[in-house]
């Protein structure tokens, strides 16, 4: 099944929020319910109106999304049952097609995200503390014109 990648529209919000929350809870078990509830509100009210967002649609349902702020990947989340099917790669390919080089931040403990970025070809730039959670965050960069292995 190939996902259809298209620009986000307001009617996609529930699907986006659902993908975000399910995937966030899976990848970030250290986040409290309060933190997630607040972030869910932020995603809806702050991030979505201010990002260039693309959704992955499968049989008419939003199964994941990527939110871009320029060449910064602000978020990429998929329903966990869609992991490993090339949907995340298709979303990242769209971002790369638009911007070329990309950057992203990922929690060090988020092995799902780190493995995905590493397989895609991102390389680490720096590591720093994420103050709201007390967790380490890695900043990664993808260079578009480097040969893919």
- Rounded average pLDDT: 93
Overall helicity: 25-40%
Number of alpha- plus pi-helical segments: 4
The separation of the N and C termini measures 25 Å
Low-confidence stretches: none
Radius of gyration: 15 Å
**Largest sheet at a glance?**
7 strands, mixed
The assigned structural class equals: alpha+beta
Dominant shape: globular
| Residue fraction in strands | 25-35%
Please count the beta strands (DSSP E, at least 2 residues each): 7
Strand order of the largest sheet: 1-2-3-4-5-7-6
Summarize the structure.
With 149 residues, this protein is an alpha+beta fold. The chain contains four helices and seven strands, in the order E-H-H-E-E-E-H-E-H-E-E.
């Amino acid at each position: 099944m190939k996902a259809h990648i298209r620009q986000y529209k307001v009617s996609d919000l529930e699907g986006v929020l659902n993908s975000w929350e399910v995937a966030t809870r899976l990848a970030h078990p250290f986040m409290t319910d309060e933190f997630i509830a607040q972030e869910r509100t932020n995603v809806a009210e702050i991030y979505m109106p201010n990002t260039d967002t693309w959704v992955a649609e499968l049989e008419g349902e939003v199964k994941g999304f990527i939110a871009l702020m320029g060449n910064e990947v602000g978020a990429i989340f998929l329903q966990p049952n869609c992991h490993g099917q090339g949907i995340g790669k298709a979303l990242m390919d769209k971002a790369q097609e638009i911007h070329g080089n990309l950057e992203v931040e990922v929690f060090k403990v988020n092995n799902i995200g780190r493995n995905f970025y590493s397989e895609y070809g991102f390389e680490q730039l720096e590591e720093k503390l994420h103050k709201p959670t007390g967790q380490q965050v890695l900043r990664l960069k993808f260079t578009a014109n480097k040969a893919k292995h």
